[in-house]
Amino acid sequence: ESKYSAPHYYLTVTVNVENLISTRKKINQSQPEKISFNALLTKYAAEALKKHPKVNSSWNGDTILKRKQVDVGLAVALPDGLITPVVRDCGNKGLIAIDKELRELIDKARNNKLMPDEYQNAGFTISNLGSFGIEEFTAIINPPGSAILAVGEMKKMPVVDEEENIKVQTQMKMTLSCDHRVIDGAVGAAFLKDLKDIIEDPFRALL
């Protein structure tokens, strides 16, 4: 229904994830349970959404509804389909709290124990197929949200630096699907650029 009713457009960026990997490694040195990459992506997406509230909006027939809080869904594959557990109010939660909630929601999802309020009404969704070796893909928007982020695998690639030297860098492709009725191209591009910048330099999340 979303694919046929919402005019999708797609934006793709390649992200340097060296800092993402090192940040997770440093955090996990002091944590009893390892923080997931999905928790980091959820937190960083929430920070970018706070800066770009139009991306955190919904189409309502002939009006646009702006959301008061950032509710991020994570697409989870099940044997008989797909479900999207939602972490509520991510913008006001810390990384550890988000990771703990994600673990609990994913466990419920895999055991068919999610309540409707735990998987409905996400304002933004992340779909990560990197663990399947998928390099790049486009995802279908999950209503009532107006955007979904498709995340590919982390892969070592040769890159040319500013001095024109070739070096190895771990990269990841992200593709943002947007509903053009709600999110103009420039707005979607600005959001994706900010998210890329935060992933590459987490300090930006504090600005």
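The above is record 1. Record 2 follows with the same two-line structure.
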Amino acid sequence: AEAAAGSVYYLTFKPEQNDAWQNLAKAYTEKTGVPVTVLTAASGTYEETLMAEMGKTEAPTLFQVNGPNALANWADYCYDLSETDIYSHLSNDSFALKQDGAVMAIGYVIESYGIITNKTLLEKAGYKVEDINSFETLKKVAEDITARSAELGFAAFSSAGMDSSSDWRFKTHLANLPIYFEYQADGIGTTTEIKGTYLDNYRQIWDLYINNSTCDPAELSAKTGDDSRNEFLNGEAVFFQNGSWEYGSLSAVYADEDLVMLPIYVGAGDEAKQGLCTGTENYWCVNKDAAEEDIAATLAFINWCVTEGAEAMANDMGFVIPFDTAVESPNLFVKQDVAYTAEGKNPVSWNFPTMPSEEWKNMVGQALTAYAADQTDANWELVVSAFVDGWASEYALLG
């Protein structure tokens, strides 16, 4: 009764799933009569949008953080989820973020990203998926496609856009690779002082992306996420770095047999056993300052999402959810991640939630963009400085 008297206001940071969330919210309201409002922040603006919305009288009752560092900023707003129905369905406690014994946030989706590949175009260029199993083989194929791009009619990579709708793919997702390999080598899970051991590997994959692409590297500052996706959809590029969340848009144009997601090879570690980058940065938090009836309504809504709504989360959103109620996803890239793991390949963990701040990501992104336009050693040193020195200074601010 208390839940039925309340309402839900969900601020989400997944623009690619906005329509699916709107539909799920509508279905829940039709079933229960409880109003559910879903607001999706524009790409790259979640933190500032959340700050603005939390300052309003009608603040979000449900919001997200992307890991422990982000949680530190919002812990005072988080309702303890340890006694809730949704927590009882969590299949692995590693997907809960805790503080002083309280469950502050719960991860609700596991995703994978890598290099999405158009198999048909790859074969037109004279190669098979099996030909790419390391950085060196990826480099060989990409540079050969570039050398013959005029006759082939397509490029190797879609544009590595550094507009705010796209730059997260490289200042966050691609930057995860050198962090992952450093953490693996040092046997750690986080650090306040990154060493940058694998930044040469970061440079060589970035060079490969930007110099074998649909556009001149100097144009990347204005290229958007839509540009990159549309280039791939239009058959202008063989490779497109992105994740399992893109399956819905790609499957509208391509059949499953046309696509494969390759690991992001950077020339580090045991590449023969490297899988996709798999993890989560999507954690639900319930606003403890909301009215009691709205907290009750919000808890009921998210529990419904992972129980009765689990099929929609799998089929409409393509999600793998970490709950005992999960429905198998039809998402091709999710299935490929499972297949890689079954073959004995090791998923690359998502370590970017340990990045110190959004400001750190922005500094790295700005340095990457400047380097792309003028690829000198001096400009790369600015990337290294943003990565290493910026990491330490931003962590220092966290205390």
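Residues 377-398 form the longest helix (22 residues).
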